[in-house]
Design brief:
Number of helices: 3
Shape: rod-shaped
Radius of gyration: 52 Å
Largest sheet: none
Number of domains: 2
Distance between the termini: 152 Å
Helix content: over 70%
């Protein structure tokens, strides 16, 4: 009888052990599947984030490129307007300088052919003392001796 009881106890323990091992295997499979699913979800989420980031970067780069082109176009237009303004200023300045030079005696013109006002202006440029009190002849002499 003892043998039957021991055998029955052994059989019960073996059944319990087999059930425990089978349950453990099943749980391990479930956990493994869960990990695989979680890994897939993480991989898919990562791919989605990477794709969205790439798309955002592409849009940003495109907008930056467009903005840079627009700014370059505006700068080019401003440069052209500024260049035209400078050209006009240079032309006016050159015209005024030519007009001034044409109405002044040249360096080859004798002082005697200059007006007293022209002689005075030249004496003023050279900072000749007493020029305001000088006659035309005195201005000529002072300019020649300077």
């Amino acid at each position: 009888m003892f043998t039957n009881v021991a055998r029955k106890a052994f059989e019960v323990n073996r059944t319990i052990l087999r059930t425990s091992v089978a349950t453990t295997r099943e749980l391990a499979g479930i956990v493994g599947d869960g990990i695989a699913n979680a890994t897939g979800v993480a991989r898919d989420a990562g791919a989605t984030v990477v794709g969205q980031t790439r798309s955002a970067v592409d849009r940003t780069v495109g907008e930056l490129r467009d903005n840079a082109r627009e700014v370059a176009g505006q700068a080019r237009a401003q440069g052209e307007r500024a260049g035209a303004a400078v050209d006009r200023t240079v032309d006016r300045t050159a015209d005024r300088a030519i007009h001034t030079v044409e109405h002044s005696p040249s360096t080859g013109t004798p002082y005697e052919e200059w007006t007293k006002a022209e002689l005075y202006d030249r004496a003023q440029e050279l900072d000749i003392d007493g020029r305001s009190q000088m006659s035309k002849r005195q201005l000529i002499a002072a300019l020649r001796h300077h």
